Amino acid sequence: MESNTSFKTTDQYYLSPELGSIVNMAMRMDRPLLLTGEPGTGKTQLAFEISRSLEMPIEVLRAKSTIRGEEVCYVQDTVLRLNDARFGVGGTGREVNNFYDYIIWGPIGRAFRSKERVVLLIDEIDKTESDVQDNLLDVLEDKEFTIREVNDRVRAEQPPVIIITSNAKRELSDPFLRRCFCHHIAFPTSEEMQAIVDLHFPNLDKDLRDVAITLFYELRSRGYDKPPATSELLNWLQALQHAGVVPEGDLHSLPFVGILLKRTEDILRFRQHR
After folding, report:
1. What residue numbers bound the domain in which 61 lies?
2. Which of 145, 170, 193, 201 has the most other CB atoms within 10 Å of its CB?
3. Is 120 inside any structural domain?
4. pLDDT at position 1
5. Tell me: the pLDDT tens digits for 51-70?
6. Strands 103-105 and 74-76, how do they pair?
7. What is the DSSP string of 176-228?
8. What's 88's DSSP letter?
9. Across the strands, what pairs with 75?
């Protein structure tokens, strides 16, 4: 990425000035950007939109509780190697004595070995243990890792744009936070939501947009266990368009409530109060 290239609001992503400034500073300074905020506020989508708009490949690491730091860089396919040693490699082109013929590169390994700069998304890092988080940040900060079986170092040819997301399921360690730029994506105001909707539905009837947004925020204010997020609103608007329906100005006759509310308890509670 050229030094004068910056990420801006696109036809698919509304970028607030504060978020835009820290995204671009993180890219210029090669620092990981940690994004927090409730689900549906666009944390994960941001990485894909940077990739799309700046025409950069993307590598994605979906974090989980069982993940180990090494496997996100590389793993050795020992089963295949043993199989080749026993039965022969045939016409595969592999050589049993060549360790690298049996390497499977993980998202970080692929990102570091790429000849061009890529976006590296580490999604929902809070699902991992704190020692895994710190080990990952060591690798990302040093921009290199060691293949311990052959004691070779793999260093990033181009430092990736690193976007890390967290839903705050688990506290992140202080060393982890210290090494990141951090930004909390607050839930959009109604004015910001209008801008987001206009990006996704430029030809949407304004009356439909306004009444839908009003009902959406009224529904969110009722304290449901999983209040509807931006993605639910966009899906709901698409359904309303398909059905040719403009909802009335109250929640009693709300159409397609199952697009906005996802948990059974919330839907039952909505029906009770309706």
Report:
1. 17-66+111-184
2. 145
3. yes
4. 45
5. 999 999 999 999 888 787 77
6. antiparallel
7. HHHTSEEEE-PPPPHHHHHHHHHHH-TT--HHHHHHHHHHHHHHHTT--SS--
8. -
9. 104
